Amino acid sequence: MPDKAQLRLLARQRRASLDGAGFAQHLADHAASLAIAPGTMVGGYHAHQNEADPALLLKALARLGAHVAFPRVTAKDAALDFHLVPDGEILSPGRYGIHEPLAHWPHVMPRLLLVPLLAYDDQGYRLGTGGGYYDRTLAALAGARAIGIAYGGQRMESLPHEPHDYPLDAILTEQGLKEFAR
Known about the structure:
Elements: H1 4-17, H2 23-29, E1 41-43, H3 55-63, E2 67-72, E3 81-84, E4 92-93, E5 99-100, E6 107-108, E7 112-115, E8 119-120, E9 126-127, H4 133-140, E10 145-149, E11 170-173, E12 176-179
Parallel strand pairs: 1-2, 1-7, 7-10, 10-11
Antiparallel strand pairs: 2-3, 3-6, 4-5, 8-9, 11-12
Helix pairs in contact: 2-3
């Protein structure tokens, strides 16, 4: 099996080739399948570099009563911080060029985390960009539900994983939600 660096290169190339036409709407159409109770704090993200875009899904979840927060990088080896976006405010490019909230906006702890990825497998493991931010965040948010957001074409047969790699609870693609047994 190729190492993680080789898999990341392959997964980036594959993800860049996937057609996103109608993808965001297909994700939003599956919002109810996440069975989120009104008032649930959801940690979303702003899509970056060909990531599967959850923007319409987040709007649909908000219509179902969820509160949506966005991540902010605070330090290289730290978990992500999540903040609500005050009315009328917009995310700004932060570290790595990713749009994120400002530090003084309300800090929250999500109970559901939507996780971007390069690839996933049928055991619920994901291949991220290699920074470890989401693994550290999932460790810090013990008990939070983690749902990967991906194009169906990002699936790989098997991915290497290490003890610090947190598996996903589910994956949501344009085809729908798949729960992983734990």
